[in-house]
Amino acid sequence: MSDVKEALDELRPVGETTQFIVIRLGEEQYGIDIKYIDNIVRMQHITRVPKVDDYLKGVINLRGEVIPVMSIRIKMGLEPDVETKSSRIIILKLEQQGTIGVIVDEVKEVVTLENERIEKVAYDSMDEKSNFLSGVGKSEGGLISLLDLNTVVLENV
Amino acid sequence: MDVSQYLEIFLDETNEHLQSLNTQILALEQDPENMDTINEIFRAAHSLKGMAGTMGYKRMQTLTHDMENVFSEVRNGNIKVNADMIDVLFQCLDALEEYNTTIRESSDEGTNDNSALIKRLNDIMNGGAEPETKEEAPAAKAADAPADGSALQGIKLNENQQSVLSEAIKEGKNVYGLTVRVQEACILKAARAFLVFKAIEETSEIIVSDPSSQDIEDEKFDLTFSLIIVSESELDGILAASRSVSEIEDVTGSVLKLEDVSAGGAPEEPSLAAEAPVQETPAPAVPETPAPAAPESEPAPAAAQPAAQNQAPAQTNAPAARKAPNKPVVNRTVRVDIEKLDTLMNLVSELIIAKNSLVSASAMSGNSSQAVNEQIEYLESVTTSLHESVMKVRMVPIESTVNKFPRMVRDLQKKLGKKMELYMSGEETELDRTVVDQIGDPLMHLLRNSADHGLESAEVRKERGKPEVGSIFLDAYQDGNNVVIEVRDDGNGIDTNAVKNKGIERGVITPEQGEAMSEKEIIGLLFNAGFSTAKVVSDVSGRGVGLDVVKSMIESLSGEVEVKSRLGEGSTWTIRLPLTLAIIQALMVEIGDEKYAIALGSIQTIEDILPGDVKLVQAKEVIQLRDLVIPLIRLNEILDVPSKKNPEDNLVVVVVKKGDKMAGLVVDELIGQQEIVIKSLGKYISKCKIISGATVLGDGEVALILDANALI
């Protein structure tokens, strides 16, 4: 089987590829571009910071550095996070906002997508979530919504 | 030759030289005859020229060369310093500064020849009578002079020492002048000198030495030093005793008489002319003009000759060697990249966090032995001193920043057509390097503000009976854990009515609000964005983007700024900055389940208050503390945490102070004092004004630092 796949891969024109980490939020799967990911850590005590937007859960200590942590769920208007054994904090390094942790329900796998298999999503005013997506990727595991991190972490004004 | 690796050093040093030139030329404007200043300028221009030449910056070299020429003429007395010349020189400095900036940006000096400036410099030169031929003359003269200069001249006696000597002579004791010459090969000069001192002290009393005993101890002398001693024994015995010290080449001495001791006339500068052969030290005040030679009647004994020779090369060497000898020898320094210091500071921070973890781990385990506790205490004291030392290394005097202000005020004076004078004090006050670098702009703004808005024109000042020349003061001093910088002027002060009207006009406040506002609140309006009361917008003091920027810049350095003003008398702007930004002593408190840190520096007292002692004033809770009424702030309400305490329990109140305002912060429990490392929350969480940062505790958890200033 894998031989066949390899053979097929070779036949395909080799295009640019991007790697994504697939995470789970509730029932849905999302992809985060691996180049923004600095680290993935287990859930730990988050020190609450008063008087900030509710999606900002607080700060954690990551090897001596103080890093803010936010909830994608609250930011995207989903149910608040429920901490389970599989919950993780993904530490993102972004150009503008610096280092930020985001809470996810589970980290599943790493996928490599060819850029031509990523489709842009049209902005849908009815679906609040579509704001936060940069595209949809097709992989063997099905469709993966790709998160547009800059909108996800953008501060609410 | 590849010189690119020296670029950083070149730029740094050029900056230093330019700064020194700026300062010196300003000084020259005040005192055009001062030879020291002229020499200093010549020296700086010369070094600049040399450096620019080495780096291959031809244009910069040409300009500095011509500047140097002008100074060489001034030094020779061929041209007099005048206002026009000072102006040209300042323009030259600006041009050099421009080269420097261009080089910093592109490592190339650009193509601006500044030929107009060079022409003006040459005009000045040609205005001067004689060409350069005489240049070497004074140097040579200065070199020759010391050889026949009078001997013990270098030793300055204060009145006290003089009277001791006269007294001793009257009592029939002998006063000797001694010159000790150490062998050239001697390695531990200071130690030998000490032995000589000891040998002499067995029989005599040393009244004064040149250089001072401290300098001798620090080896800050050449090969000879001189002493004046009082003794009852014979000179020969003393000489023999001191010659017996090994590695001493020779000791010569002679008897001093009463006239010698009291010679020198003027009490401010009593110098001792004597027969004794002593190392010649150029008179401190004016190195170029050799000290008036005393009568050469006495034969100059052998030792004087080598001593003079020793001096001579130093004199001819370079203008650099002609610094006034009374200036302290420059400390040995190492240039260190600020980034390396940052790394060091971070490591110290890590160490302190590790130490805190150790402390809490040892407390947790419960069975810690005496020995462990002792070692932990030792570790604590070491980390604290380590932190202090690293901080001190990072501290630099604010001088480097404030030194450009006199020049700026001078320029402003011309631009605004007002007469003003800047008085500075406390330039030596030290602050963290990063703070010093960033404090320049806010200070400049405040000074410009004072010059433009504060000071009245000369006519108005005259009418008001003030001196025509306005004064601006810049005072810096350390106050506990803070450094205070004050910008003060004797101008008009802040017209609160004008500010109020402006505020209403701009829609910042409503007329009703305006009525209700206190004078302090109105002055506070000045720090609002988009607020300028200057009737004419000038390029001197912005368009009202000034003061709010000043405020936010100072707040970003964890400082604060305050204004006090009296209409017609002037205003005072007070900037208060913390000494350190990175590591502080803090009080840890508990509110609900959360831990917070409060900087110890802002805490006044901690009080235990009965619930019944809390009074209501204007529906706000207050407590009375030794005649002071202090508003209470219930932190659990502000921080949205449920308090663990019952309402009938006593309140734990941490009294904090900001300027002259106080407030009582109600907490659940006190945990204790701790040294904490301040970490930024990052710009992502910048909305929370009452939290100034976070810190990592010993157990790895993060605690937030409450900003007492923002709470008040």
CATH fold annotation of the largest domain in chain B:
Heat Shock Protein 90
Q: How far is the first residue's CA from the last residue's CA of chain B?
A: 61 Å
| CATH architecture assignment name of the largest domain in chain B | 2-Layer Sandwich
Query: What is the helix fraction of residues of chain B, given as a range?
Result: 40-55%
| Count of distinct strands of chain A | 11
Low-confidence stretches of chain B: 128-151, 263-330, 535-545
- What is the second-level CATH architecture of chain A? Beta Barrel
The overall average pLDDT of chain A, rounded, is 82
CATH superfamily of the largest domain in chain B: Histidine kinase-like ATPase, C-terminal domain
The total count of strands of chain B amounts to 22
Instruction: Estimate the global geometry of chain A from the Cα principal axes.
Output: globular
Please report the number of helical segments of chain A. Answer: 3
Largest interface: A-B, 24 and 28 residues
Description of the structure:
The complex is a heterodimer of chains A (157) and B (712). Chain A is mainly β and 157 residues long. Chain A has one domain: CheA-289, Domain 4 (OB fold (Dihydrolipoamide Acetyltransferase, E2P), Beta Barrel), CATH 2.40.50.180. Chain A contains 3 helices and 11 strands. In chain A, strands 8-1-2-11-10-9 form a 6-stranded mixed β-sheet. In chain A, strands 3-6-7-5-4 form a 5-stranded mixed β-sheet. In chain A, strand 4 and strand 5 form a beta hairpin. Chain A is globular, with a radius of gyration of 17 Å. The mean pLDDT of chain A is 82. Chain B has 712 residues and is of the alpha+beta class. Chain B has 5 domains: 127 residues, Four Helix Bundle (Hemerythrin (Met), subunit A); 155 residues, Alpha-Beta Plaits, CATH 3.30.70; 60 residues; 180 residues, Histidine kinase-like ATPase, C-terminal domain (Heat Shock Protein 90); 129 residues, CheA-289, Domain 4 (OB fold (Dihydrolipoamide Acetyltransferase, E2P), Beta Barrel), CATH 2.40.50. Helices cover 44% and strands 21% of the residues of chain B. In chain B, the strands form 5 sheets. Chain B has a 6-stranded mixed β-sheet with strand order 14-18-19-17-16-15. Chain B has a 5-stranded mixed β-sheet with strand order 6-8-9-11-10. Chain B has a 5-stranded mixed β-sheet with strand order 20-12-13-22-21. In chain B, a hairpin with a 3-residue loop joins strand 10 and strand 11. The longest helix of chain B has 28 residues. The radius of gyration of chain B is 33 Å and the shape is globular. Chain B starts with 6 loop residues before the first helix and ends with a helix. About 14% of the residues of chain B have low confidence. The chains are: A mainly beta (157), B alpha+beta (712).
